[in-house]
């Protein structure tokens, strides 16, 4: 009973983070299942079955709050489902030990770019509002879906930073669209695991409690992502990507860092991340105050201030 309660709390916390930042549900949940001795394929299968419900609830909540671009969902979700099914079906014969550090290095680069760009200049506006092309979204979805099912998580960490880095969508739209399209990925991955493993290798009680926690958190996360300023949200996402992928690299065979080295690196990263978030908050408030004054002077409504000017599609 205690284990089930813990899993429910993990599902709630993981979905709260995932729905707010567009990543980390699968990574968090799978990590716990592996820690208690579940084999990788069964752990990923359990998480993806739970994600069928959590992504459905999350997608509905994001749609309710206007966070979803359905064209992006279709363009990335369908190839994502194909990649997820393939990854789930062949997980037992595939090794991600070499691929994981390479992917983490690429994601770390994207994370640094996002953190610096959002912290220093706010939301990218040079291409904001331009359509995302299928030739970009389809390969991205295929790779992200494959990584997600073989690694027990990865749809958000791969998809979210890539689309954010394009500068063509506001952060809340990126997160809402990624979370919504993940429903297709979760269904396809679950079917692949059921074909490859059989239902007897999946603990459906664990699926149920992870699902319960995630469903409770989904509408809260969708509300949060609509009300967090884009500049602050971008800095938060960038930091999350950096922390997650540095952890993977330090534990990989490439580096295999000692505990002392890892903890020192983590401390430095958390300090830089905290400073970046503090700077983003300060700059957001300064811009909001100055634009509110300008709105009053020109006779425009006071609520059409910094959020609107810094992120036109985020309103």
From TrEMBL:
**Keyword Repressor set for record:** no
InterPro entries hit by this protein: TM_pro_TauE-like, TSUP/Inactive_protease-like
Q: Where is this region: Disordered?
A: 295-315
From which domain of life does this come?
Bacteria
User: GO cellular-component terms in the record?
Assistant: plasma membrane
Key words of the record: Cell membrane, Membrane, Transmembrane, Transmembrane helix
Q: What is its main location?
A: membrane
The record's Pfam families line, in alphabetical order, gives: TauE
Where found in the cell? Cell membrane; Membrane
Where are the bilayer-spanning segments? 98-116, 204-225, 232-250, 262-281
How is the protein disposed in the membrane? Multi-pass membrane protein
The family assignment reads: Belongs to the 4-toluene sulfonate uptake permease (TSUP) (TC 2.A.102) family.
Q: What is this protein called?
A: Probable membrane transporter protein
Q: What is the lineage of its organism?
A: Bacteria, Bacillati, Actinomycetota, Actinomycetes, Micromonosporales
């Amino acid at each position: 009973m205690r284990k089930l309660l813990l899993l429910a709390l993990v599902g709630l916390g993981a979905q709260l983070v995932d729905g707010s930042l567009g990543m980390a549900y699968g990574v968090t949940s799978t990590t716990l299942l592996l820690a208690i001795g579940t084999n990788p394929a069964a752990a990923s299968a359990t998480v993806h079955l739970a994600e069928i419900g959590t992504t459905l609830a999350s997608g509905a909540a994001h749609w309710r709050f206007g966070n979803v671009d359905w064209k992006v969902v279709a363009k990335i979700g369908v190839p994502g489902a194909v990649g997820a099914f393939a990854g789930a079906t062949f997980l037992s014969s595939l090794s991600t030990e070499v691929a994981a550090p390479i992917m983490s290095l690429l994601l770390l680069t994207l994370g640094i770019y996002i953190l610096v760009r959002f912290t220093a200049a706010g939301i990218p506006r040079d291409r904001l509002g331009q359509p995302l092309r299928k030739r970009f979204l389809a390969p991205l979805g295929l790779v992200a879906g494959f990584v997600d099912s073989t690694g027990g998580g990865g749809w958000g960490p791969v998809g979210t930073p890539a689309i954010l880095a394009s500068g063509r969508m506001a952060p809340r739209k990126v997160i809402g669209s990624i979370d919504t399209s993940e429903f297709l990925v979760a269904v396809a991955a679950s079917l692949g695991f059921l074909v490859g493993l059989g239902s007897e290798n999946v603990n459906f009680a664990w699926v149920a409690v992870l699902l319960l926690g995630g469903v409770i958190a989904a509408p809260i996360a969708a509300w949060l992502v609509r009300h967090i300023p884009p500049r602050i949200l971008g800095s938060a996402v960038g930091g999350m990507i950096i922390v997650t992928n540095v952890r993977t690299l330090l534990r990989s065979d490439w580096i295999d860092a000692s505990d002392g080295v890892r903890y020192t690196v983590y401390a430095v990263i958390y300090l830089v991340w905290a400073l970046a978030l503090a700077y983003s908050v300060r700059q957001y408030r300064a811009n909001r105050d100055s634009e509110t004054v300008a709105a009053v002077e020109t006779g425009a409504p006071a609520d059409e201030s910094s959020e609107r000017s810094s992120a036109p599609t985020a309103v």
